[in-house]
Amino acid sequence: MAAKGPLRPLVSLFRHHPTQAPRRTFFDGLLRSEKPLAINVTRTIPYPRAKLYDLIVDVDSYSKFLPFCHRSRVTSWTAPDANNQRWPTEGELTVGYGPITQSYTSRIVCVPGRSVEALSGTDEPVAKKDGGKNPFKQLVTRWTVEDAPAPKTAVGEEQEWTKVDLDMTMRLEDPFLQIMLSKVTDETATKMIEAFEKRVRDELRQGR
């Protein structure tokens, strides 16, 4: 009978081979980022604040002048105030960019004469009305108007000037779309406020 060799320590039989942790790339960091896209554009326009606010709060007309907005409809209003004025509280928008078209519901918050804010996304209670099809985790669009002094370059008759701010904050459900959108957000916001300026000229130049 052959002699048995020395027993090998169990520790050597079950030697642990550490695995190398996967390296994270810059692209991975972008996909995991929760940081929203935020943009702001400002214009000073030679028209009274109240008239500009009336155009901004007219959500039903957005599809007539805002780029990428194919459809806009207010679906809920406040009760009439002391001046018998109602303000939108909820609306449906359909937007499209290239081959992509999407409809979603927004909660609307109005501070009469000052601001109009639309809030949408899956973080919002109104998201359930979209049937889970809202592409945004968060989408906040805020228009603000305030009285402004006339620019030094302004000449001619004395008139009222208004500062208009457009602020947008967004986070998309799809991280790839978030990356793509980040490259065109500034351009999109600029086009929106330029379209608003044209709307102002078309509606108010003749005193309508």
SSE inventory with pairings:
Blueprint: H1 10-13, H2 26-32, E1 37-45, H3 49-56, H4 62-65, E2 69-77, E3 88-97, E4 100-111, E5 115-120, E6 136-148, E7 161-172, H5 175-182, H6 185-204
Antiparallel strand pairs: 1-7, 2-3, 3-4, 4-5, 5-6, 6-7
Helix pairs in contact: 3-6
Which labels suit this protein?
about 210 residues; alpha+beta; Alpha-D-Glucose-1,6-Bisphosphate, Chain A, domain 4; 7-stranded antiparallel beta sheet; 6 helices
Number of helices: 6
Helix/strand-derived category reads: alpha+beta
Tell me the strand percentage band. 25-35%
**Rounded average pLDDT:** 80
Low-pLDDT stretches are 10-14, 25-31
* CATH topology call: Alpha-D-Glucose-1,6-Bisphosphate, Chain A, domain 4
Helical percent range?
A: 10-25%
Strand arrangement within the widest β-sheet reads: 1-7-6-5-4-3-2
Shape: globular
The value of Rg in angstroms is 27 Å
Largest sheet, strands/sense/barrel: 7 strands, antiparallel
CATH architecture: 2-Layer Sandwich
